[in-house]
Specification:
It is built from 5 helices and 7 strands; from the N terminus they run ααββααβββαββ. The protein has 182 residues and is an alpha+beta fold. The strands form 2 sheets. Strands 1-7-6-2 form a 4-stranded mixed beta sheet. The chain has a 3-stranded antiparallel beta sheet with strand order 3-5-4, with no helix packed on it. The N and C termini lie far apart (64 Å).
Length: 182
């Protein structure tokens, strides 16, 4: 088996993720991300393409699911990935429920007041709190719970990667929460 030298400062960064991922999982995720980014597999969902639709109450297994697009209360995230969709839900929730403490009652993701950057946390400077990064599965759950609490529509389109362990390899899916006005 070949070995690769890892710089001390890079190993330190990998070790900061202990408790969330094993070192090998971090390396595998980085490789998966960059291989996918640079080989540009088709991920967009074409108009008229068949997709499986799910509610946020019955979220399918999202292992190997690539985020394609989304809207939370008719607003798209700044970047097309699960982290930024979660960030959009948290920011919207924070503003609508009236602050950090009330958001903690709505969001099931780990939140910390102030800046925290270890253990997979991401700081939201303009709101003054940090949230812990999670899997696509857990992000979808939390996004759905915040949308339910705020009674807002949400739509997330994704595509399962063509991997043997994916629920529906290569197929498109959509998570939807509709809001009907009376």
């Amino acid at each position: 088996m070949p070995y690769v030298m890892i710089k001390d400062e890079d190993m330190k960064r990998i070790n900061e993720l202990k408790g969330i991922f094993e070192a090998q999982d971090v390396i595998t995720r980085v490789l998966d991300h960059y291989l996918e980014e640079f080989t540009k597999p088709e991920t967009e969902i074409q108009e008229g393409e068949q997709h499986k639709e799910f509610s946020f109450k019955e979220i399918p297994d999202l292992s190997f699911a690539k985020f394609v697009s989304g809207h939370f209360d008719n607003v798209a995230p700044d970047r097309t990935n699960w982290k930024y969709m979660m960030l959009l839900a948290l920011e919207t929730g924070y503003k609508r429920v009236g602050g950090f403490e009330k958001l903690q009652n709505v969001a099931t993701v780990n939140l910390v007041s102030g800046e925290k950057s270890d253990e997979g946390y991401h700081f939201i400077e303009e709101l003054g709190f940090s949230f812990q990064g999670v899997s696509a599965q857990y992000a979808a759950k939390c996004i759905g719970e915040i949308a339910e609490a705020l009674d807002v529509p949400v739509e997330v389109s994704f595509r399962w990667r063509k991997k043997d362990n994916a629920l529906h390899p290569g197929e498109a899916g959509k998570l939807v929460r509709h809001v009907y006005f009376s």
